């Protein structure tokens, strides 16, 4: 009797293979199980670290800045100016921390990726599942910070309800390209470079603590090209209510969204290729 045929009827149909979304969710469940055991180690620093930073910079330094006028800040107190940017810095740090050592360790140390590759998951599914977990971490940390912002009266517009997706986009704009690159890294020491030469300079020179217009003219185009500036400008406009005050403001907000979405999608596409190159067997 031929394989795949039943003696009493037509050929037996094979079970349908799960779709890409189902497989990505299966990969996500692995990270959720692990995070259920380790969340306490990151909860305090993820939630209260940015809050203390906001208190020191927004209220401490802000008390000195406000004495000299706030015209350069759009007429809002310094803490209102800096809070949305700190939200984006937190999203950036969460995205990078979730895509540096966890990605490298999943291939080199605890072999989570190798174990997943031994199942029906494809490299692209493993990548997408891990990115879903990164998005969840970014959303959780950002939501906590937004609650603090609302409690302190730092959100001046109803458009603040869009702060969470804006912060999520900002974090993913860093997480997906970082993960796509880290999967190819061979040496652990190389993981320090994105933070030292990427995250720290961006935090200082992307309009987080002062307007980009205060920078020298020759470096402003560089600042405008950074994803952190786009995220900070978008969140600041949503928080203060200027995102849709005019047609030009709405166009600027759309540019920010398109830039962050495009960079996140590019990182996800690149991750599918680099993960396939490292995990294909």
Overall description:
The structure is a single chain. The chain is mainly alpha-helical and 281 residues long. The chain has helices spanning 20-38, 40-67, 78-99, 101-108, 112-117, 123-151, 163-182, 193-205, 220-224, 227-240, 247-279. The protein is elongated, with a radius of gyration of 22 Å. The two termini are 34 Å apart. The mean pLDDT is 87.
Keywords:
281 residues, 11 helices, mainly alpha
Put the structure in a nutshell.
This protein is mainly alpha-helical and 281 residues long. The protein has helices spanning 20-38, 40-67, 78-99, 101-108, 112-117, 123-151, 163-182, 193-205, 220-224, 227-240, 247-279. The protein has one domain.
Overall tally of domains: 1
Uncertain stretches of 5 or more adjacent residues: none
Would you report the number of β strands? Answer: 0
Rg calculated over all Cα atoms: 22 Å
**Percent range for β-strand residues:** under 5%
Distance between the termini: 34 Å
Which helices and strands appear, and what pairs or packs with what?
Elements: H1 20-38, H2 40-67, H3 78-99, H4 101-108, H5 112-117, H6 123-151, H7 163-182, H8 193-205, H9 220-224, H10 227-240, H11 247-279
Helix pairs in contact: 1-6, 2-3, 2-6, 3-6, 3-7, 3-8, 3-10, 6-7, 6-11, 7-10, 7-11, 10-11
